[in-house]
Amino acid sequence: MKPQTKRKQQAIETKERIFKCAVALFGQYSYENVTVNDICQAAQVSIGAFYHHFKNKECILNEGYRLFDDQLEAAWDDGHPDNDLEAIRFLVAGQMQSMQQMGALAASQYFKNQLTYEEKYILNKDRFFYRTIYEAVQGELTSENLFGEAQTITEDILSNCRGIIYDWCLHEGSYDLMLKGERVLEMVLYYYSKSIDKGAGAE
């Protein structure tokens, strides 16, 4: 059992090394200009090892979304705000921080991938990121009187986040993504919070 566990751990480490080297290369040279051979050389693995872990280059980017969700869930489990609005801020800040650390060029590759790849993981409602924001919205921002659908509000929050990241990529990362993300999120939260207040007043 011990040798098998060691092999499994080595496989995980190899996959993570391939992923990190690939994203670094995408951020430096752009996705289109990086070959599988380039990734293998950077990660010091064989072509066979690459295809053992990834079906193709596109799968690396999809892995990035899943890895982000795993990291965000781990941060959530380590400690998160009890207040629903603060929870939304916590999650969105995690997304913005992840993109900013990655860099604008690398982040733009994720958007290109999702525009052309059949599996739109970024829109998957079963993702931890989506589910947890949805649950927080249900607890704080829904109203039977106005804008009562949590899914609509969640989609508004997430589409605003995607728009900000896209704009940041267009500007080649020339401004602080986290600050702008925070500012625009507050606009959305303020709008829906006020809508609930109006609905309560109508009673």
TrEMBL record:
GO MF term set: DNA binding
DNA-binding interval(s): 35-54
InterPro entries linked: DNA-bd_HTH_TetR-type_CS (IPR023772), Homeodomain-like_sf (IPR009057), HTH-type_Tx_Regulator (IPR050624), HTH_TetR (IPR001647)
Keywords noted in UniProt: DNA-binding
Gene3D superfamilies, sorted: Tetracycline Repressor, domain 2 (1.10.357.10)
Pfam families referenced in this protein's UniProt entry, alphabetically: TetR_N (PF00440)
Residues that span the membrane, as ranges: none
HTH tetR-type domain mapped to chain residues: 12-72
PANTHER family in alphabetical order: ACREF/ENVCD OPERON REPRESSOR-RELATED, ACREF_ENVCD OPERON REPRESSOR-RELATED
Record's protein name: Transcriptional regulator, TetR family
Organism whose genome encodes this protein: Anaerocolumna jejuensis DSM 15929
